[in-house]
Amino acid sequence: MKRLLLASIATLVSLTSVSAVAQFQKPEDAVKYRKAAFTVMAAHFGRIGAMAAGRAPFDAAAAASNAEIVAAMSKLPYAGFVEGTSGTDKGSPKANVWTERAKFDDEAKKLQDEVTKLAAVAKGGNLDQVKAAFGSAAATCKSCHDHFRNP
Ligand code: ASC
Predict the structure, then answer these.
(1) What is the pLDDT of residue 23?
(2) Among the four 7, 73, 109, 120, which has the fewest Cβ within 10 Å?
(3) What pTM does this model have?
């Protein structure tokens, strides 16, 4: 059942990410969308982080399932970074997302690559490997935040 659900999500995600650019009627809709995608991604990433940090017992199946969701979700938020939606308030994207778009896209790709690796590693059920892959993935979050997100 979970497998079927994940397969359905994966299909939806692959269809959605292609058409997402055209799906926003207003810039605010794109902002809401990307925030929602990051919120869901962070919730599932955080569950793995809690295990990696020893704040929660290691549950290999839960780690693998959360990592698959993170990997699928990581494809979504970037379509929501439409022109004219930078800000200055805490957590909002700086204007350099659009003036340095190639670098931003590269940061996005790095995140997607690392969470894809995390999902693969998590299937193996080895906590030390999950910790290492989680750390690499978290570093890509931080790198992008440091450069493109208002503190
Ligand atoms: C998380 C989360 C992030 C990243 C970042 C890593 O769990 O929600 O945004 O890790 O804190 O530095």
Answers:
(1) 84
(2) 7
(3) 0.87
- Mean pLDDT over residues 33-57, rounded? 98
Joined tokens for residue 44: 């599932």
Residue 14: what pLDDT? 63
46 lines ligand 1 (CB under 6 A): yes
142, 144, 147, 148, best to mutate for ligand 1 pocket (most atoms within 8 Å of CB): 142
Instruction: Report the pLDDT averaged over residues 112-125.
Output: 98
Lowest-confidence pick of 13-17, 49-53, 60-64: 13-17
**What separation in angstroms does the CA of 82 have from each of 10, 31, 52, 130, 132?**
23, 8, 34, 33, 33
140 CA distance to ligand 1 middle (Å): 9
Whether 21 has a pLDDT exceeding 60, the answer reads no
Q: Is the CB of 49 under 6 A from ligand 1?
A: yes
Per DSSP, the residues of 47-92 read: HHHHHHTTSS---HHHHHHHHHHHHHHTTSGGGG--TT---SSTTS
Separation of CA 137 and ligand 1 centre (Å): 9
